[in-house]
Amino acid sequence: MRRIGTNLSAAALTMLAIPADAHAAAVACGGGVSTGRVAVNGCISAQRGKEGRIYTREITAYVKARNTGPKAVNVSYEASFRVVDGGHWVKLGSGRTYVPARGTVETTEVGSSTRVCGPVKVEIRVHARADGAAWSGWSTAGTAQCQT
Known about the structure:
With 148 residues, the chain is mainly beta. It has one helix spanning 2-17, and strands spanning 28-35, 38-51, 54-67, 73-83, 90-99, 104-116, 121-130, 139-144. The protein has 1 helix and 8 strands.
């Protein structure tokens, strides 16, 4: 019985280690900013794609929030996107989430933009506002748009 339990445990751990989507893009997060007792990180991913003979990148902005306070709060957030060299900020999206007391809301997608692949660096920025608090500063994350 003990050997069967050990084998089943090993098999279960192996299944957990295999990613559900082997083609999923990695998500990189920037530095944290805070609003009230909520810490916020802006995160970015770049997924490769192809439309006909043109290579593309799906640039996606995410927000991650941690509540260090003893009460749950609602948090509003916004994300913007730009090409670093000479680009201007464009709003990608906004939303609202409930962050439990002393809890974390993992990466939540805010918005995305599909771009033609180019040798440029892109970045997103995210800021947030907890109920009753001011807007946080901007948390920025960047990536090479056409990394492999």
